[in-house]
Write a structure and sequence with these properties.
The protein is α/β, with parallel strands linked by helices. The chain has 4 helices and 5 strands, in the order βαβαβαββα. The protein has a 5-stranded mixed β-sheet with strand order 2-1-3-4-5, sandwiched between helices. The termini are far apart.
Length: 117
């Protein structure tokens, strides 16, 4: 089954480039304009596995990543920044531990903070 991928952007040039890049891949590609007032309900309907976010688009409001993850908590949000040619990946996940060892694991420590034994 193809992966649902949504580009969340207001820039058609980026959308055309991403569409061309994904041609031939096993993805179902959709574009949602961030200026669309009904984007959240459309996003829920599509239920994407990956949301590509144009992080170089200054017209996107503050907190958009938080709103995207709240709308589609199982999705991976990938911020594309064409200005510095980088990507950032955001994902909502839950660690089923409540102790400090779980916290250290979540932030990538092995329990030996600073190399101490």
């Amino acid at each position: 089954m193809p992966q649902n991928v949504v580009l969340f952007s207001n820039r058609s040039l980026l959308a055309a480039g991403v569409r061309r890049l994904l041609e031939g891949e096993e993805v179902k590609f959709s574009i949602l304009e961030a200026q669309d007032p009904d984007w959240a309900s459309k996003m829920k309907e599509i239920q994407p596995g990956v949301i590509l976010l144009d992080s170089g688009d200054r017209s996107l409001a503050e907190g958009v990543i938080t709103r995207l993850l709240a709308t589609c908590p199982k999705a991976k949000v990938v911020g594309l920044n064409t200005d510095n040619k980088s990507i950032d990946i955001y994902q909502m996940s839950q660690v089923p531990q409540t102790d400090m060892a779980g916290l250290l694991e979540a932030i990538g420590q092995d329990g030996n903070a600073g190399g101490r034994k």
